[in-house]
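Thread: sanity check for a docking pose with zinc ion

Original post by kr_44:
Hi all, I'm comparing my docking run against an independent structure prediction. Below are the sequence and the ligand SMILES. Could someone generate the full complex and paste the structure tokens? I mainly care about where the ligand ends up relative to the chain.
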Amino acid sequence: MIKHPALGSFLVAAAVTACFLVYALGATRNVDEKPFIVFFTLVAFPFGWFLVWIFLGAIAWWQGLTRDPVEAALSSLGISPEMIAARSLVMCPEARELVVAATGDDGSDHLLTPEAAAAWEAMSAAALADGVSLRIVSAFRDVERQTEIVRAKLARGLPLQDILCVSAPPGYSEHHSGEALDLTTGGVAPLAPEFENTAAFRWLSHNAGKFGFVLSYPANNPQGYAYEPWHWRFSAQAEA
Ligand SMILES: [Zn+2]
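Reply from moderator J.T.:
Ran it for you. Here is the predicted complex with zinc ion included:
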């Protein structure tokens, strides 16, 4: 795939121009070929450029069709592959099958994979039996939504590096997997560090593992995210 259509365009245009100049310089020495020069200048040359234009348009169209949506989202936000590599982030493909795990106060559905939803149901019921109420703030999120979140923060003037300490780059959010949950409980603001000091967090620390949920981003995590006591991810392996 041509990574730089502008460079391809320049090379093709330079080659066409060189061919024309070589022909024209040779032909001017021969009076009989004057009509051919006129023909080249008025018809063949513009037609050749038209073909180049069509060809480059086709390449751009094909690249647009085949471009990876995650790659497109990252480049539209100015997130380079080097920034991803420096953080050793792992790509999280979007879940294929989702079910409604809970409905939020605003009526929006929180989606999870069927396995994660079943584990969440069992875990939240067990917590409630112990007098602990757990609520979902956020569950599945697609690449497009993650892109909007980062774009909105950029629009508010936040530096990209700061944004990426609290928001995953599109394609790399565990929420794409349909297995990650942001949880809250009564008495604290959602997604606030104070969640760590709640009975709900203490209960999760002792019991979430039994249901297959693991705290993804403890303090000083290797991915470089800020500590997220509210973010838990289901893993079928952790359950077993
Ligand atoms: Zn989260």
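The pocket of zinc ion is lined by residues 138, 175, 180, 182, 231 (CB under 6 Å). Hope that helps with the comparison, let us know if your pose agrees.
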